[in-house]
Amino acid sequence: MALSFFNRRGQDKEMTFIDHLEELRWHILRSLLAIIAAAILIFVYIDWIYDHVITGPLQKDFISYIALCQFSHWAHMGDTLCLPPAKVELQAITFGAQFMSSISIAFMGGFIVAFPYIFWEFWKFVKPALTPKELKSTRGAIFWVSFFFFTGAAFGYFLLAPFTFSFLANFQLGKSGILVTKPTLTDYIENLVNLTLGAAVSFQLPVVAYVLTRIGIITPSFLKTYRKYAYVAILVIAAIITPSPDWMSQMIVCVPLVLLYELSIVISKRVMKDRERRDKEWS
Question: Could you tell me which residues are beta bridge partners of residue 12?
């Protein structure tokens, strides 16, 4: 079993299945080294990152709380978007909880920081298998994948997280006041990671639509036909991403994903027009 690939010097050679596995191993290894390097850098400044980044959505002076409240007043909506900060005290219930959480923060942050390089390594592995025509149609892939990834991560961190934590921290069961929310550090980090990376992955929808249209799996008419089913799937995704059951957090996720789906239809149309134009030129 052999496939024709280009080696690193651009010379054509036959590579066996074992050669492909060896090549993939080196791409994965370099990606892991990039994550570790970024994680070490983050761990050096872990105290500052914890105080200003990780617990940012819990601080009353968090930029999102201030900006949303100012926008609410500017739009003559009163205090509708003035969210009450999440007044909670995180707790570590095991001896190693704080240390292990710092390790988790370092590696998750390392993955986010190193994401463009990780995708570049993946792209280097896949690129030799593409034809010149396919390569031409995939220009800027690294930029756009990284752009939507960081846009989604920022959306999850700056907008979705404040709404979610504000609602969950201030939700009171009963009126006796004897229940107090005291989340663990691990629980908080898991929720923050789910919100951030969940939004980052969800924002890849236009890129996925572009690729699938290019290879002929989907069409604009297909996306339009199954639009209503897609909206139901978006509601499910919103319920998975947001741990809070309030409708505001659900809508904050649903509206951007619906817009991204509609953007995917526009992108798919443009791709189809390009394909039809090229087919006419070749015929």
Answer: 6
pLDDT reported for residue 69: 86
Q: Cα 147 to chain center, whole Å?
A: 10
Which burial class, exposed, middle or buried, applies to 106 when counting CB atoms under 10 A from its CB (0-12, 13-18, 19+)? buried
Q: Which helix (H) or strand (E) holds 6?
A: strand 2-6
Which run of H or of E encompasses 12? strand 12-16
Buried b (16+ CB within 10 A) or exposed e, 64-73: bbeebbeebe
Taking a C-beta distance cutoff of 8 angstroms, is the pair 249, 164 a contact?
Answer: yes
| Burial class, 60, CB count within 10 angstroms (exposed 0-12 / middle 13-18 / buried 19+) | exposed
| CB burial readout 193-223, b (16+ within 10 A) else e | bbbbbbbbbbbbbbbebbbbbbeeebbbeeb
CA–CA gap between residue 148 and residue 202 (Å, rounded): 9
Residues in the chain: 283
* 115-159 pLDDT per residue, tens: 999 999 988 888 877 777 667 767 778 898 999 999 999 999 998
Residue with tokens 């030799």: 128
* Cα-based angle 36, 41, 45 (whole degrees, multiple of 5): 140
- Asked if 35 and 118 count as a contact pair (C-beta separation under 8 A), the reply is yes
Query: How far apart are alpha carbons 99 and 105 in whole angstroms?
Result: 10
